Amino acid sequence: MTTSAEKYQYVSSAKLPTRWGQFTIHGFEELDSGQEHVALSYGEWSIEEVIPMRIHSECLTGDALFSTRCDCGAQLEKGLQNIVKNGKGVLLYLRQEGRGIGLLNKIKAYKLQDQGMDTVEANEHLGFDADLRDYSICQLMLQTLKVQNIKLMTNNPKKRVALTRMGFNVAERVPIDHGVTDDNRYYIQTKTEKLGHQFTPEQYIKR
């Protein structure tokens, strides 16, 4: 069986000042594809400590272009803010646009959603599974940063399952219910009802 260390490599680290504080950015690379991923760390810790952590999949439209079709950008900002508030933590930023289908296919999926499909139906209409993301690089990232015990900021139970299977202790799940707008309530409802994301109905029901 191929191990995480055989598929990925750590590249380098540097200081990364942000609006919320000074993080350190750590670069990682997939050896076969050359795909690049980063981890942001803040503060210091021992291997025994429970560390606040978020796995965030890239969303150019939400993270960088301020789209309100999704809640990604708001969750990215809230994750970084929570880490600084806690005095330490890690955010893993994985280059898995559109739940793994890529940016241009995501735009195609958006067009289908404009025509009435939900986010799951659109991905499947294009010939993809509803969620193609792979979290295996997280193992090398967290081992490099010496994180074993995790307080996971997520609404997606698949992330907790993936980390547990890799041997990490997810001591607690912290909801990150931010960025709900009139533009994305149906999208969030679909994620909840079809993908098992853990939102409460009151957060997405149109008022």
SSE layout:
Elements: H1 4-7, E1 8-17, E2 22-30, E3 36-42, E4 50-57, H2 60-64, H3 72-86, E5 89-94, H4 97-100, H5 103-114, H6 119-125, H7 137-144, E6 149-153, H8 157-165, E7 169-174, H9 185-195
Parallel strand pairs: 4-5, 4-6, 6-7
Antiparallel strand pairs: 1-2, 2-3, 3-5
Helix pairs in contact: 5-6
Q: In short, what is this structure?
A:
The chain is 36% helix and 25% strand. The chain has 207 residues and is of the alpha/beta class.
Number of strands: 7
Q: Which strands sit side by side, in order, in the main sheet? A: 1-2-3-5-4-6-7
Q: Measured on Cα atoms, how large is the radius of gyration?
A: 17 Å
Kindly state the mean pLDDT as a whole number?
Answer: 90
General shape: globular
- Point out poorly predicted stretches: none
Largest sheet entry: 7 strands, mixed
Strand content: 15-25%
Order of helices and strands: HEEEEHHEHHHHEHEH
CATH class of the domain at 8-96 and 135-184: Alpha Beta
Output the CATH topology of the domain at 8-96 and 135-184. Answer: Rossmann fold
Number of H/I helices? 9
Q: Into which percent range does the helicity of residues fall?
A: 25-40%
Could you state the CATH homologous superfamily of the domain at 8-96 and 135-184? GTP cyclohydrolase II
